[in-house]
Write a structure and sequence with these properties.
Belongs to the UPF0229 family. This is UPF0229 protein BN873_20009. By secondary structure, the chain is an alpha/beta fold. It has three domains: 55 residues, no CATH class; 78 residues; 169 residues, von Willebrand factor, type A domain (Rossmann fold), CATH 3.40.50. It contains eleven helices and ten strands. The longest helix has 35 residues.
């Protein structure tokens, strides 16, 4: 019997398997704790881990209880008071000896909640787990084609690590049988004939000697057939097949006009920061187009979108027109899944709101998979909200939500991008 001793040193992630098993087992409690932890976070802390508390009662495991009567053998480690044959008194006050963990006591002893620290990756994975881009469909292949390695039979040449031993031995056996078959057949016939010659009286010595020499020659020819040859080797053949990949673009439109004070701009930045983190984490092949607008719309980079201090009047249609032009020029519908998210305080030049509705109905909504609009205002809705309500009545893939403060960002975000059951 062989004994194998693993002398490899434990790595720093030696508990990774147990950690993932724990997260899967208590996933509902951990997700609840993550949701509660998010309510007290600022947007700058979204990309960090978290220490969460899980009530000790949620960590209980099922156990088997022994009823009254019967005989059973139990091993008590560290026992100094009892030997075999002694009788143990049953605890008074019921079938169990515990008093419960949730009861108050005068001994000052208790059990705290279980504290579990989630890493950054685990925290974001749980937070974004049930979110997705709605109506995301596969279009054409992305610019960078994805390939998947698939089995494609067997090959006579290949990497030694891909050697198929069973297939190779099966081929070697078939080859040995085929090559040795004529000699084996004649060998059996010669052996049978030799037995007959030796059994006859008198023995035909010359014939017997000739048969012995022939038998030795045939056995040598059979043994000369190689057990395995390079011709027998078979390697698992793999080929790369192109896989269809989803290609999407998200337009982020933010109002930076004078009516958007610093607090409202901060809320808009928080929403888009959360959206940007969600997109980059869950979709590898997705492009993000940032558009800032006041009276004039401009495509900007990520740095300018989140940190520029530019301000001015309000003409929302300029941003929608720019989005439609960019989508038509760079993102054809046959290749791209187009999404848009817009944040504004709802303040707009009165005569511009009908123009926004027309642009959405004619040039944007027929081509986008999903359009989400958030209005950051504690006041009553203005003309832009009313115009957008008419768009929502026509297109079910147009979503609207209102944000009053920082506490509304996460619930609204999850409502806009929650996973729909198809």
């Amino acid at each position: 019997m062989a004994t194998l001793i693993d002398r490899r040193l434990d790595g720093k992630n030696k508990s990774a398997v147990n950690r993932q098993r724990f997260i899967r087992r208590f996933k509902s409690q951990i997700k609840k704790a993550v949701t509660e932890a998010m309510n007290g976070r600022s947007i700058t802390d979204i990309d960090n881990g978290e220490k969460i508390n899980i009530p000790a009662r949620d960590l209980s495991e099922p156990v088997f209880g022994h009823g009254a009567g019967g005989r059973r053998e139990t091993i008590h480690p560290g026992n100094k008071d009892f030997i075999k044959g002694d009788r143990m008194a049953r605890p008074q006050g019921g079938s169990g000896g515990g008093t419960g963990k949730g009861q108050a006591s005068n001994s000052g002893e208790g059990e705290d909640d279980f504290v579990f620290e989630l890493s950054r990756e685990e925290f974001l994975e749980l937070f974004f787990e049930d979110l997705e881009l709605p109506n995301l469909v596969r279009t054409q292949l992305a610019k960078v084609a994805e390939f998947k390695s698939v089995r494609a039979g067997f090959s006579s040449v290949g990497n030694p690590s891909n050697l198929d031993v069973v297939r190779s031995m099966r081929g070697a056996l078939a080859r040995r049988i085929a090559m040795a078959a004529p000699y084996s057949r004649r060998l059996h016939e010669a052996e049978a004939e030799l037995q007959q010659v030796l059994a006859a009286t008198p023995v035909d010595e010359p014939r017997a000697q000739a048969l012995v020499e022939e038998i030795e020659h045939l056995r040598a020819r059979v043994r000369a057939v190689p057990f395995i040859d390079t011709f027998d080797l078979r390697y698992v053949n793999r080929t790369k097949q192109p896989q269809p990949s989803t290609q999407a673009v998200m337009f982020c439109i933010m109002d930076v006009s004078g009516s958007m004070d610093r607090a409202r701009k901060d809320l808009a930045k928080r929403f888009f920061t959360l959206l940007y983190l969600f997109l980059k984490r869950n979709y590898q092949k997705i492009e993000v187009v940032f558009i800032r607008h006041h009276t004039v719309a401009k495509e900007v980079d990520e740095q300018e979108f989140f940190y520029s201090r530019e301000t001015g009047g309000t003409v929302v249609s300029s941003a929608l027109t720019l989005m439609a032009d960019i989508a038509a020029a760079r993102y054809p519908l046959s290749v791209w899944n187009i999404y848009a998210a817009q944040a504004s305080d709802g303040d707009n030049w009165h005569h511009d709101s009908p123009a926004c509705k027309d642009i959405l109905l004619k040039h944007i909504m027929p081509f986008v998979r999903y359009f989400s609009y958030i209005e950051i205002t504690p006041d009553r809705h203005q003309s832009l909200w009313e115009a957008y309500e008419e768009v929502r009545e026509v297109h079910p893939n147009f979503a609207m939500q209102q944000i009053d403060g920082a506490a509304d960002i996460y619930p609204v975000f999850r409502e806009l991008f929650k996973r729909r059951v198809s």
